[in-house]
UniProtKB/TrEMBL annotation:
<protein>
    <recommendedName>
        <fullName>Endolytic transglycosylase MltG</fullName>
    </recommendedName>
</protein>
<keyword id="KW-1133">Transmembrane helix</keyword>
<keyword id="KW-0472">Membrane</keyword>
<feature type="coiled-coil region">
    <location>
        <begin position="53"/>
        <end position="85"/>
    </location>
</feature>
<keyword id="KW-0812">Transmembrane</keyword>
<feature type="transmembrane region" description="Helical">
    <location>
        <begin position="7"/>
        <end position="29"/>
    </location>
</feature>
<keyword id="KW-0175">Coiled coil</keyword>
Length: 147
């Protein structure tokens, strides 16, 4: 078996480089691009197609914005005011059960966990509270604790 010499490799790379340069020069001076001449009617037709696409997209965006506004109105309509009473000496479990029975909270355990995370289990203040439903846990906790 014959050893490959440095001279042989340099000739090989030189040939590959010359081939690449030659092919680039051929494609540069002889491009394969077809140019089209459009008539006035074809130009107007293409223009109307593009405008129709833009109008459809803008209508879709308007519909999405209108749907968002409708959802916001529905959310505002769904807001209910509820009066909730916490009596003096009531246990935390009783308060959470009352909130759950009036559908102020969705899950007893997650609300209790949220109270523990914020370290306010012993800071609940008794009294009557006006609550707007739906309300998230943090806002509810802010209303019923001693500040």
């Amino acid at each position: 078996m014959k050893k490959i010499r440095v001279w042989d490799l340099s000739i090989l790379f030189l040939g590959i480089g010359i081939g690449i340069i030659l092919s680039v020069a051929i494609f540069y001076y002889n491009p394969v691009v077809k140019y089209r001449d459009y008539s006035d009617d074809q130009i107007v037709e293409k223009y109307t197609e593009i405008k129709l696409k833009e109008q459809r997209e803008s209508e879709k965006n308007n519909n999405k914005n209108n749907n968002k506004k409708d959802e916001e109105k529905n959310i505002e309509d769904d807001i209910k005011k509820l009066e909730f009473n916490i009596e003096k000496g009531q246990s935390l479990d009783t308060i959470i059960d009352n909130l759950y029975s009036k559908k102020v909270i969705d899950n007893k355990e997650s609300f209790l966990d949220r109270l523990k995370v914020r370290e306010v289990t012993g800071k609940i203040q008794y009294g009557t509270y006006n609550i707007e439903l739906p309300i998230d846990y943090d806002d509810l906790i802010d209303k019923i604790i001693i500040k």
